[in-house]
Amino acid sequence: MADSSEETKASMPRPESKAAPSDGKSPRPEVNAAFHPSGRMPHGRLTQFLRGLAFAAYFAFCCVMIAITQLVGAPLYFVNREWYYAYMAMTKRSFALTMIVMTQIWGPTTIRISGDESVADQIKATADGGVQFSFPERMVLIANHQIYTDWLYLWWIGYVNRPGMDGHLYIILKESLRFIPLIGMGMMFYGFIFMSRKMATDQPRLAHRIRKLSQKMTDPKGKPYMSPMWLLLFPEGTNLSSNGRKKSAQWAEKNGIKDVEHVMLPRSTGIFFCLNELKGTVEYLYDCTVAYEGIPRGKYGEEIFGLASTYFQGRPPKSVNFYWRRFRMADIPLDDQKKFDAWLREEWYKKDQLMEKYLTTERFPAMAGAKQPFIETTVRTKYPWEILQVFTVVGICGLLWNSMRKLATAVAKVSKP
């Protein structure tokens, strides 16, 4: 079905709109509100409906398979805790693969990566056009929160890390997400941390979960070790929006501090608590500044790159841009809440400056000390057959059940007089 004339007009730039500068140095002109940064909508309503149907069928089927896999392995919790956590890490990796393939097929995008000198030797391009990270097995990761799918792209970073960390990512989430059918149950199995945003209520729960992530274990030879862990936090608390920016400005005015323009001021209480709980078991805090190509100055990603635009309409972000920095935990003022609050706010001012540079030049600063200023790749799996891992346990259980059923039938026939 062809697009309606209204859709076509809405997707095309007005005559006065100009293309972004190709030199990456001149200020980018404002984009007309009717113009989508990913271009004209390539699919009509029927195609969008079919894409949405295929997307829903794929995602639901994979989630059901993962949920069954989790239930099959749940009794391991009462047998051996280390086996249980390793098994659930495997199912967490299955969900990461589900999302990567989902993005690869329905919402393909370019990932453009750079960072300062603290991470330059930990991010390398691969010969096949991919990227490999060498971040540590235990770290805290913080980022600005642009759109709802930020965590999806950051989870993919764990997938391309060596060692692979997509099975060991832990996210702090809103309490309401716990009640999403299937997915909520899955996130509880994953050990994700749900918060009500009331610190008096959340602190005991948070302390319990963080301490579990800090427990020392012993290998078969009796040698102690720490479980792999990437703890993902969004200090802004929610994704950037008009309402969020307004609240950030009001909070800045109320507290007599300078506001930011392109992000929201971070709240330090939760992250201060987490870092203090993890102190001594984590050496580094990694910070990622995230920007999406084409979001005009003064506009917000949630208004442009929603679920429908990204996966149904065929208009995902043309590029997702990451700028990485690393901080040694020993250098962060964790002994005083006020000092930490000032430190975190200062880092967010720097993040705001990075966003200003991106809006002006359409690029973050180049990779420090590297021949290649940016590493560009796409969200994809290393091998096309990896997605089959999602169905492995259920498939094996199905084969065993079928074999046992046939054996029982055969025994019953033999035992008949």
From TrEMBL:
What positions does the domain Phospholipid/glycerol acyltransferase occupy?
Answer: 139-272
Q: Which PANTHER family match?
A: 1-ACYLGLYCEROL-3-PHOSPHATE ACYLTRANSFERASE-RELATED, LYSOCARDIOLIPIN ACYLTRANSFERASE 1
Return the protein name: 1-acylglycerol-3-phosphate acyltransferase
Gene Ontology annotations of biological process type = phosphatidylinositol acyl-chain remodeling
Which Pfam families does the entry mention? Answer: Acyltransf_C, Acyltransferase
Q: Does the keyword Plastid apply?
A: no
Biological source species = Drechmeria coniospora
Q: Where is this region: Disordered?
A: 1-39
Q: Which domain of life is it from?
A: Eukaryota
GO cellular component annotations of the record: endoplasmic reticulum
- What does the UniProt keyword field contain? Acyltransferase, Membrane, Transferase, Transmembrane, Transmembrane helix
A Gene Ontology molecular function term of the record: acyltransferase activity
> Mind telling me which residue stretches traverse the membrane in this protein?
49-72, 177-195
Does the record carry Heme as a key word? no
Q: Which family does it belong to?
A: Belongs to the 1-acyl-sn-glycerol-3-phosphate acyltransferase family.
